[in-house]
Amino acid sequence: MNEQIREKEVRLIAENGENLGIVSIETALAQAKAKGLDLVEIASATKPTVCKVVDYGKHHYRQEKRQRKQKRQTRLKEVKFTIKIGNHDFETKMRRVRTFLSAGNQVRVSIFFRGREIVHADRGHALMDKVAEIVSDIAKLDHRPSQKNKVLQMLLVPVDQQK
Asked: Which DSSP category does 1 fall into?
């Protein structure tokens, strides 16, 4: 930004997005100062470097806001079940799964087998099928149920977010 830019020539973009062409760094800084704004480096990898005349505070705020929004969109939530889950507990967890999916989050459904419950893996698969069927209107399976040691997992993705 401003005097920290070490290039001799830059491609200058006005605050309204108009391309002003390739100018010397001194000319670009003078134009920015005349308008009471800052000269900000936008693309340093290009030759010549692209700089824009903007209010740095607003520019920085917009970038942070965009990054926060991107972070929020890629959330993964997990809901854990056991094969001995009661009806009421199952319904409560399914409401939570629906809430996560409707908010645009991916949901990992995990079924934990404790002790000798692992011999009843078919019950776990049946429970997974039931979960997938209940949320089939708002979600699709991204990864089929897979078992690793004593955990059976699958990944649900909201329909609008599916690739």
From this structure: -
Evaluated on CA atoms 59, 60, 65, 70, the torsion sign reads positive
- Secondary structure class of 137 (helix, strand, coil): coil
Q: Are residues 119 and 153 in the same domain?
A: yes
Amino acid at site 22: I
* Domain span at 10: 2-69
- Predicted TM-score (pTM) of the model is 0.54
Tokens encoding 101: 């999916």
Q: What type of residue is 10? A: V
Which class for 17: exposed (0-12), middle (13-18), buried (19 or more C-beta within 10 A)? exposed
CB 39 within 8 A of CB 51: yes
> What does residue 59 show for φ and ψ, rounded to 5 degrees?
-60, -45
How many Å apart are CA 153 and CA 80, to the nearest integer? 9
Q: What is the pLDDT of residues 78-105, one digit of tens each?
A: 999 999 999 999 999 999 999 999 888 8
Based on the domain organization, do 44 and 123 belong to the same domain?
no
